[in-house]
Structure formats: structure tokens, C-alpha cells
Amino acid sequence: MLVAKDLTKKYGEHLALDRLNLAVLPGDVYCLLGANGAGKTTTINLFLNFVEPTAGAAFVDGSNVVEHPLECKRRIAYVPETVLLYKNLTGLENLKFFAEIATGTTFTRASLVDYLVRSGLPEDAVDRRISGYSKGMRQKVGIAIALAKSAKALILDEPTSGLDPKASNEFSRLLLDLSESGVAILMATHDLFRAKETGTRIGIMKSGVLVQSFATSDVGHTELESIYLDHMSD
Amino acid sequence: MSRSRQILRVARHELRLSIADRRLVAGVCLLMLVTGAGIVSGTRWVNHQRATISELEKDERSRKETIRQELNATPGQTQVSKAMPIDARSPAIVGGKLGSTYATLQPKRLAVLAIGQSDLLPFHFRVSTESFRTLIDQDEIANPAHLLSGRLDLGFAVIALYPLIILAISFDMPAAEKEAGTFGLLMSQPIRFSDLILGKVLSRFMVMTCCALAISTTVIVFGASDRGDASVWKDWSLWASFLILYGAFWFALAVAANLIGKSSASNALMLSGCWLTFVLIVPAILNLIAVSAFPMPSRITLIQAARQATIDASEEGSRSLSAFYEDHPELAEGSGGDVDEFMVRSLATRSAIDEKVRPLIERFDESLEQRQRFISRARYLSPALLAQDAIESIAGTGTSRHREFLAQTKDFHQKWQNFFVPRIARKAKFETRDLEAMPQFQFEEDRFALTFRHLLGPAIGLIVQFGIVLILIGRSIRDFRVVG
Amino acid sequence: MRIRRIATKEFVEMTRDGRFRWSCAILSTLTVLALAVGIKTYRDVDRLHREAQAEAREHWDHQGEKNPHAAAHYGLYLFEPKSSLSFFDRGVESYTGVTVFLEAHKQNDMKNRPARDGTSLQRFGEMTAAMVLQTLVPLVIVFLSFPMIAGEREQGTLRLLMSQGVRPFEIAAGKALGTVSALGVIILPAALFGAVSLWLPSNTTEVVNPGHIMALALCYLFYFMTFLAISMSVSAVGRSSSSVLVWLLGFWIFNVLMAPRISAEIANWAIPLPSAFEFEKAIEQDIAQGIDGHDPASERLEKLKRELLAKHQVETVEDLPVNFAGVVLKESEDYGNRVFDKHFGELWAKIERQDVLAQLISFVSPTMAVRSLSMAICRSDTADHLEFTRQAEAYRRELIGRLNQDLIENGADSGFNYAADDEMWKSMPLFRYRPESLADVLKNQVIAVISLSSWLVAALVCAIGMTSRIRVD
User: Fold this and answer.
1) Which B residues 66-105 touch C at CB under 8 Å?
2) Which residue would you say has higher pLDDT here, A3 or C415?
3) Is residue C275 domain-resident?
4) Given 3.20.190.10, 3.40.50.300, 1.20.120.1200, 3.10.150.10, which CATH number is that of A2-82+151-233?
């Protein structure tokens, strides 16, 4: 679903991403771990065609992201690290706007409310302005947008940063539901615990290189942490 | 998923956001306020002009009536009415101050649009047998500080403030999204960046265009004369089109700045710099160049030349002996000279002087022409100058219409001379049939086609400038990167 | 000490900024250009006026033999001299007449407004040094200082500074000092150019008065300080640096664009001026019918005749020991002058009231205050023009009066054939315009002075107040 082939990005002299090879299949929850500047955000930007690769290519459902940007964007849903949304509009109005831009069709109120509720937003909150939402609630709207889009792939950037344990837990469950329905999920995160809990595969990035990649089921929590720290200390 | 529907969706969404943001509403309110003030000011000025002209016409009619009565009185006897005995049988006297007529420039139908140059350039001249150069040396009474600062008319509001409001509501389009954090989310949707910008601009453009049309209609309803006349609506359509075209340029500029992709603060700096350049600096510098590169011989030189010519034309040296005798007829009795004789001699003197200073005046007009030609080419450097030209043409308060007025006044003055000089020279007596045959001034307004042709220049200029900015936009869109 | 460090850092940061370098270059170029052209134009026009005035007097002195009243009709042209500082601030000089024709029986208007031969471009504003200082420098001040506090807050460096124990006031003072130094760099080349050109020898009518220059410098200093202080205050309380910029730009637009025009509109509405036609008609009417409408000229003439005959106890006019024509002329001249005084007096009073209104409006706009003061100190405002007009008129009356007196005293026997010669003409006094002293000018501008000072004080108080209470976030 999401494939990176020798994906490379150079900013002037600085090599931000060095020949990344990656595959996220439908139902996978792929967690990219790594320090700041390791290349996680660059990878995401490349999949979203926010920047163009210096070499190699990124593919979404078989289509090259650079050659068919709109096609690919139709199939991906993206939830950025800080979901800020339009603060003077309500959660419902925000969802309506993004969903309609995303799909080109009009949605009924009922279907929109349904998406929000399925994302975990309490029904009495849908008509409140975003300025009154907590971070967790805003993130749920982001997920609702992904649902409304019927995206085949979901890209998340540091989704659990700033969430309290309860919200974090709810979020995990949402992700698992989505992956069960066949969505390919790529997640950049620092949160080792969540990565072990929800992820199916883990990839560790350092200085633009994918240094190690394995299935989550292969390791335990403590093991994961020591592998991670080993790489970080080199 | 059609592109146009995507764009419209963004536009609708943008409208809702803008209203919530209140900046758009504030901008519109400000525009309406200033527009209202401008219309009021323009209307007052036009009414003042019309009132003055009708006063002049009344004065002229009453003087003519006095002459008629004099002519119909017992021949050979001059009536001593009050302290000013008048000899209505002398063509020199009638052709002078007594029977002088006014060449007036009525304000055009849509004159409320812009006061333009009409506060500085006179809209009426008193035509008599005086030489042309003294005749045009009349000015209206005005506080020079007001001439310096200019008035708060609709023209000013449109040329200077309208762009500012457009820039104020559009300087931070994607920047605002970026700063609000919705940009990433939005750009991950299947919508082209150019369509996003287009949608945003469209909503603002629609709002501003509606304002522009509302302004135009208000002008017609409250300010124009002959509302029922079809040509008023033709003028209206010209005016509305210009407004929209001018607005389009500034919107395009805002888009270009937004695409350069820096923070909204630097957009604001860049755009205010553009505004400053086009509206204040370029005109001031061009004016400097026009004045320095095309210096005119000073009017003072003209005065001195005329004086010298007066001395040379061995007259007794009085400014005009006939005027002297107009002022002091009681003193003329003892002089032993024939009044008519003096009139003829002074006429001769005057024309001798005019001949002498003619080359100087021609040099003068030539330099003025050169200056004007430079200006008419240089104005393409700034949309504000083009807009000023267009608005003043439609309102009829620009320099070109005034030059036309001067030219027609000059021709009329010649007609007046041709009527009176032979009669004075022949020492003929002025009769009632002469009174009826006296020339009357009627300003020939440009036909609509000519106005349209004149506006073509500014229109093309604005379109070209708009096109240049569009090219800039096209290039920036290609290079635009969402991140980095 | 800290303040100086902050100032230095601010100065270095600013001068490295591309925006600063650009504004520096553009502003300096424009100012130097404006000064250069201003000085050249001033010298040329001044020379022209002086030569013309000399020539006009030549013509007058060599009129030859004629009746004094004929000489009074021959008249004399006066050319308004350019004020020595008009190269800096041209004020309203383009819009006021430059010559006036002095003759008997008529108080003429000043004619030949330079602007009538100008272009429509000049209505956008004339490029003089004063215009650059009044409109562009405040804009540059805004551009340089709007991120002063708000920008640091956004960058996060404000928090860092304040956590070092730096007091908010020190931050503000240091930044202000740095900005002022940066501005000094901008204005320095222009000021040097101006100073050098003033010191160069020039053959102009007037010499520049150092007192005037100091007064000017002080005004503009107050003005710039006011704008800086306002920028600082807004930057301290603004939510984001772009909202600060928008507010400050709005303030600038109001000051530079709108306030003068609003002032013109209000003045026109509150104190309307008559049209030229109405004005002349009213004068004609009063001379013919008498000022109160009941004293027509013919009756005045009769009355005068009777009185004079009675006084000298003769029967006919020819027997009078004085030239009757001369007496009549003098009387009509005096009566005319009364009428002129009434009408011109009213007109000028109205114009002066309009200018006072403009000064009052400066309480909401510091730019109006500095505009008014700058024009007044450079003696290129309406008040100076009116002063010249008054003195020209006084001179006219003296001139005509002397001529009439000569006719009355020496022309008794010859009647109208009496003629005087060049000796008489040359004996007439020379016209010398004495402009108001700086003290008088400032007295007339007292409202603007108070306004500018109040603005400065208020802005400083605001700045100190706002910056003492800076929010870190």
C-alpha cells in the first residue's frame, strides 16, 4: 500500500533521508521510531508530496506520489502532530469542510456525526467550537476526517504526544480498529510503549537511515527499549 | 470531483471564516464609510460648481438686459445710472467688461466620482476683448493647504484606500493557514494548491466586487444628474469595469506575495512596500522627472516680456487706456480726446503686445505639451496613475478635459475678437441686432466613443500589469513548496 | 550597562537585516534626491524672482513723464520671494500665486499658481525632503520596530531574556536605543548632504537662519520619537507581530493619507469660502452702493465736492488751490481700501480659522502637527503667504497714496495735464518683505506645538507603561 523505494532526500549538502526502503501493507501498523532529525518527518513529507525526492520514489497503492499527487492524496489520510483546525468553526463544520474537499461529495449531517462518534468524540461535543476542544478531541476529528475519506492508508505524525494515558489508550484502540478494517497505517512516534502496543512492525531510523526493522511480535517491551537505546548511543 | 466545485467549496468556506474573523467585515465597513464620505464631498463640490455657473449665467443675463434697455433708450443719450455711466453703444465697452460672457465647463454626469483637478483648474473664464493670456489668469478662491492635501473624494478612496483594504484582507491567506496549523491537513487532501489559493481569492474578490458595484450604484443614485439618461449607465459600466480591473490587479499582487511563502508579517511588509511604491513614490518621482527634465519657461518671463512689449508699443504706458476711461469717465470729459479714438488705439496696442509675446507663449505651450506627453507615457509605470487617469476621464475632472476646455475657450475668444474688433475699428455704433448676434460659448463634450477610446490606454495598461503579476504567480506556484 | 548591551545587539541585528539595508538605501537616495532638486529649484526660482523684481522696478523708475495717476495705473509687479528653507519643505508654495500687480483702485489677487502648469501627478504628493521625513521615515520606523517585543515573544527569546533577570523596561529602552541608532544611519547621509549644501556659497535673497534649522530639527525629532514610542507600546501589547504591524500601518495610513484630507473636508464644510465671482461682486457692490448700501458713489462724489468748495470758499472746482481730480481719486481710493479691508479681511480670517481647525485636528494626528509646524518654520505655509499679501497691499496703499498726494499738492493749476518725471518714480520706497520672526511663527502655531508635545509625552508614558508590564507569553 505504502511503498518507499530507495527514497532519498538531500537539502543542499545535508542528507536527510538515505535510500529508504519500506513497505506498509493493508492492515499493518508500521511505527517509525527515531530521534528528532532522524528522517521520520521527511519520510512523511515525501509520501504526502510536500517535498520531492532527490532520488528514489514513494508509492501509494502502486501510484508514484510525484506523478499522481492528487490520486495519492485521495487515498491517504494524514493527521499532523498538532491538529489545530479552524477555531471559529465547530467540530462538525470542520469535518464537513475537510471531508467534502477530500472526497468531492456532500455529506449529510447524520453521516458526519456518525464519523465523529466512531472516532470517539462525545456526541454533545460535535457542535462546539474547536477553540473549546482538548488536543485529544481535535485529534479525534482528524481521525474522523480519515474515516470520512475512506482512506486506504493513514499517516500519523507523533499522534500520542501531549495526550494523557486515557486518551492515548482510546487512540490505540481506534488504530487497531482501523488496521483490522484493512487500512495501512504509518506512524512516526517517540512513544515506545504505544509502538509495542499497537504496532505490527517497527522501524528504527537514525540520521536518515533505516537501521533496523522487525515485527513487534518478535520483541518484548524491555527488549525494544534496549535495542532502541543501543542504536541511539552509536 | 470537479475542480471548479472544489474551488467553490474553498471559496464558501473561506467566506464563512472571513466573516467570523471580522477583518473582512471591518474592511468592508471602512470602505463603505469612506465611500460615503467621498460621495458626499463630491456631491457638495459639484453642487457648488453648478451653483456658481448659474450665478454667472444670471449675472450675464442681467448685464445683457441692461445693455438691451440702454440700446432701446433714446439714442445719443447715455443714461447716468448710479455712479457708473455706461455707453452701451460703444462696441469696445460692450466687448469689454460690460458685455463679457462666461465660458463655463459644466461638471459631467458622473462628476461626483472624483474632484480630480477641478479644485485647482478653473471651470469658468470671463471672455472679453482682453487678451487671452490675461483672461486665463483667473483662479478660484481656495485654501492652498486644501489644494495641497487633496480632498476626501471617491477617487482618492478608490485609488489609494481600496487597494489597501484588498491587501489587508488578503496578505496572509496561506500564511494564516500555516500559522493556524490547518495547512498540513489541508494540503494532504486531493486539492491543488493553486485551486486552494484561487478559492480563497475568489471569495474575497467576490465580496470586494459586490462592494465596488454597490459603491458604483450608490454614486449613480445619489450623485449623478440625468439618472434616466442611457449614457449615464454607459459611464457607470465603464466605471464599474475599471473598479473591478483595478481590484483584480491588487488581488493578484497579494496572491503573488502569498506564494513567495514567507510569514504573514513579511507579506505585509512586501505588500505595503508595493502599495507605497505604486501610490506614493512612483508618482512623486515621475513628477520630479517631469519637472526637471521638461522645464518650462517661467510665467514670470511672460509677464516681463509683456511689460517690455507695452513700453515698446509707445502707448502712454497705462495698462489699458480704455480701462482707465471705463473707470474714470468723468475725467475723460476734459481730456479733449475722442473716446472711440482711444479705444481703437488701445486695441492696436494690445494686439501689438500680443504679437510680441506670441513666440514666448508658443514656447510655453510647447513645453507643456512635451511634459504632458511624457506623463501620458510614464503613467503606465503605476496602476494607481492609470486608475487616476481613468477615473478622472469618466468623471470629467482630469487635465485632458480641461485642456480641451482651454482650447475651445481660445477658439471662442478668437470668435469674440472677430466679432468686436471690426466694429471697434470701424467706430461703429453697437445696435440691438448686434446684441442678439453676440457669440455664445457652448462646451462641446466628447462623444462617448472618444471617452471610450481614451480609456482604452489605461485599461490595456492595467491588463498588462495584471498579466505580468499573473506570470509571476504562475512561476511561484510551480516553485511553491509546502514545507521547507 | 545592560541597556547598552541590548542596544548594541539590536543595532547589529538590524543593520544585518536585508530589510534594513534596503530601506536605508531607498530612503537615503530619496532624501538626497529631494534635497538636491529642492535646492536647485529654489536657487533658480529665487534668482528668477529677484531679477524680475529688479527689472520691474527698472521699468517703474524709467516710466518717463506722465501724470502720477497714470503711473498709478501703470502699476508695479511684485514677485513673492522664496523663503530660504523652502527647498526643504515647499509647503503650499505650488498652490499660491507668485506675483501680484499693484495698481490704483484695485486690490488684486496673487496670480500664477505654479501648480496650474504642473501635472496631475503632483496631486499624489511632491517629493520634498519634508515629505520623505513626514511620510516615509515613520513607515520605516514602523517596519523596523514592530517586532520589538512581539517578535521576540514569538521567537521565544523574550522568555529567555526575562529569565536572565532583565527587567522589561531595560529590554524596551535598549531596543529603542538600538533602533534610534539604526535610524541615525539612515538619515545621516541626507543630513550631511543638506548641511554641506547650506554651507556652500549661494547668491540667494535670504540666508538660512540657524534658529529655524534647530526648531525644525526639534520638531522632527519629537515626531520620530512619538512614532517610535507608539510602535513600542503597540508591540508590547500586541498579540502577534503581524497584528502589531497591521495596527501600526493603520495608524500610519490614517495619519499620512486620511487626516489631512479629512481636515480639508471638515474645514470646507464648517467654514466655506466664497467663490471668486461672489467675492468680486460683493466688492463692486459695496464700492458702488456704499459699504452699508446707502452711500452710493455718485452721492459721495457730490458730497466731497460740496465740502471742498465750502472749505476753500470758492465757487467752482477750477478755483480750488488743490487738484480736484486728485482729491476725488484719493477719496475713492480710501473708500475702496475700506471696502477691500472688509472683504479681504473676512476672507483671510476665514482661511486662518480653517488653518486653526487643521491645527486642532492635529490632536488626533501627530503628522498633522509636524506638517503644520514644518511648513510654518520653513515659511512656506498659508500664513506666510497671507503675510506677504498684507505687506504687498500696505505697500500698494503707500505707493498710490504718495502719487495721489503729489497730484493733489502740485497739480492744482495744471489739472489733468500735470506730469511728474522719473525723479518722482525713483523717489518711491522700495518694497522689502519682512517675514515674521520665528517667535511670532511659533506663537501662531502654538496649538500645533502643544499637540506635538502632548503626543510625545503621551506616547512616552504609554511606552514606559506598556513595556513595564510585558507579558512573556
Assistant:
1) 80, 82-84
2) A3
3) yes
4) 3.40.50.300
